[in-house]
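So, can you check this one?
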Amino acid sequence: MAERSSLDEFEKAKNLLLKVQRILIISHKNPDADSIGANLALREALENLGKDVTSACVDTPPESCKFLRSAKGYVKDFNPADFDVIVTVDCGSHKLMAFHEQKPELLDRQNVQLINIDHHPSNDFFGNVNIVLPEAAATCFILFLFFSYCGWTITPSMATSLLHGLYYDTGCFMHSNTTADTYRVAARLKALGGDSVRCVKEEFHSASLNKLRLWGRALSRITLNGKKAVVTALTQNDYDEENAKHDDISGLVNYLNHVPEAKFCVLLTEDGRGNIKASLRTQRDDIDLTSITGLFGGGGHKKASGFTIPGRLVEKKTWSIS
């Protein structure tokens, strides 16, 4: 499943992790189940080896991940000098760490050892060691390969964390990134004790009233523009009035992607910090969304991409950014 060059990076990462004691694992900002699942599984694997491990993320893990082991054990601040090695998981670029602005030393490859584990084609190989497999369905998929390569035990709780990320990034095996290998890894994780039922329930079949009402606002505003794009938006006022959380939009953009006559869909949301987050999805093979999101400093995958820019949403006949 992994090419020779990837196995070389596996070996480098394994040797580096085994020889140090203090390890920090960073999930990307606005974390999803793949980034959280990968972080928690790697953390448990390293703790089982007697390492001192800390998980970090600038944002709180989504509600759908809080059933996972140690999901509440995240820090939002740290001193890079306190760690021997830093690992980033599912960060398509160094900017997605979000910590780099306040802690520029994170990008100092001479003094900070960083392992970059990711599956985004847009990854800019910002680590000393880069385990980047764009063909992988999820970062959790890569970690399964890495654990298997290292010969490290995968516990039931680790298997559940990895399964959760795999379910999320494949849309419960409905996205085009699902391959025969994806099913094989999922089957192996299930056999190792992964709670597939709980993963699916928490990620795809659980919603608060506030979340459903927030979705209702977005769905009531749907338009299909002249470019055959489905577009809708949510302002900070929408979140406030529905007493909803920002991670309550998880899954909404995939729902918008169901419209058969649309070429792609766009969900615009205010993040409450003076920024606008755009999430794009398509079902079509002839559209590469990164060609759009890249214009705004974003990235991701061909059929699932996004970007974040400063501004606020203004509703006129169509939504605009100011």
